[in-house]
Description:
- The structure holds 2 protein chains of 2 kinds.
- By secondary structure, chain A is mostly helical.
- Helices cover about 80% and strands about 0% of the residues of chain A.
- Chain A is built from 12 helices and no strands.
- Mean pLDDT of chain A is about 85; it is low at about 225-235.
- In chain B, helix 3 (about 95-105) packs parallel to helix 5 and helix 4 packs across helix 5.
- In chain B, the strands form 3 sheets. A 6-stranded mixed β-sheet of chain B has the order 6-7-8-3-9-10, with helices on both faces. A 4-stranded antiparallel β-sheet of chain B has the order 2-1-4-5, covered by helices on one side.
Amino acid sequence: MLDGLNWLLDPxxxxxxRGIPTRLLEHLAxxxxxxxxxxxxxxxxxxxxxxxxxGRGLVVGLSGALRAMPTLGxxxxxxxxxxxxxxxxxxxxxxxxxxxxxxxxxxxxxAGVESVDPATVDASRALGLTEWQxxxxxxxxxxxxxIVGGLRSAMLQVVATATVAAYISLGGLGRFLFDALPxxxxxxxxxxxxxxxxxxxxxxxLFLLVGKAVLPAGVRATRGTRRSKTPTERTAA
Amino acid sequence: MIEFDGISKRFPDGTLAVDxxxxxxPSREITVFVGSSGSGKTTLLRMINRxxxxxxxxxLIDDEDVAQLNPVTLRRRIGYxxxxxxxxxxxxxxxxxATVPLLNRVPRAEAVARARELMDTVGLxxxxxxxxxxxxxxxxxxxxxxxxxxxVNPNILLMDEPFGAVDPIVRxxxxxxxxxxxxxxxxxxxxxxxxxxxxxxxxDHVTILARGGQIAQHGTPxxxxxxxxxxxxxxxxxxxxxxRALTLRESNGRTLVVxxxxxxxxxxxxxxxxxxxxxxxxxxxxxxxxxxxxxxxAEAPHEVAPAVNDAPTASGVPEVDTxx
Lengths: 237, 324
């Protein structure tokens, strides 16, 4: 452990194209890109499922099954099987990470929309909101806390798993692990592991704060000071 | 005028909720659909703004077939108030009221000013403007719901058991408030309830529905009470029992009004000319209030019977029967 920390504190490891800042940025880039792609796909599907209440079994089953595939195995398979696989290592990497990230985001999205009180949705429709307006002005804001929750758990898995990118010669914090392994350079491996863990914790905290910020104000009011609905009107009015 | 023309509705599961229902609802008056669950009353209401599509038949609003209208446009022209207010929990009272005007691209300042006006109209303190629905009591939420229903200044207001979920005292206030509002605004109101006393209190016209949207009787409260069309109606309105079967009894030189349960409902006033029953003022409110609270069981249909007595639609007051 101490060796790992010493390795981390060595100024020589904090510069250059193989230094910690570069690897950190690469790791963040892979994570961010994955979440962006998975987010677009899974949010679109999840919101559609939540709003229409259709196709849930199919899509959830499918994404769950894909996810059950071992990441490393899938990565190597895609890299070897397709022509672009090794030349453009980023593509197989993104595919496996996106597959990993979709289920939690999807679950957050449809669970979030389904958690909205049907009476609220019904009333909105009766007022004359279009289906799009119901989705964006009512269901989406009310589902946001659960959506952010889904993104958060996807992010944690992707940050940890993005280390496999290094296995097929990409960058990222995984480099420290895979480069050090054949050399039995355990301090470097330990340092890499510490960096991944620290990054995950920091991002997790960030998502936690975002999650709090997007909690709709009226819903916050409910949780803070729920009042009995019976005879308060007399005293309040 | 709203006209139901041979309306039927069969739900996908096969239940026939409404079977060949035809009725005209006059403009600028309150028509109440009353019936127990399964009578199709809510289904009928929701067909007016196309929240439910009839399987056959037509609904005309001022001779215009609603099926020809875009549902969104139609709904924005019609006010809708539902049982649990259906307010948007993430928006303030003011934003909730102004929702539809803003969708209709009314300038924000104008929509907000109008929303504040409406809060006043429905008796909501201006201090609630920036509160969220969860911070209001059930009764206050219903007031917001009514204000929102009125926000686009609709000719038609649909009310689906709007006071069903609030406690009896607040319900009473809201009912009176609605009658006051209706005197000012004169909307065409379709009101759904399972509470016959609420129906008689509020309705200019009352439609008593049996299973499958069959009209058991349609008429003014006066007509229905004085001449129930069938055994079913008589039983439903409880004409010959309980709080509605009033009898007179002489005691110490004054005439007491006694209901079917043996309770003393009040004292018959000397100046009976002013109304069918003018009950002695003094102890009355207190006494009736006590009865109302004492027998309150949310779903019991008859406990607010005395409310009928002082309603503006006093035509619904039961004639005082002599002992049978």
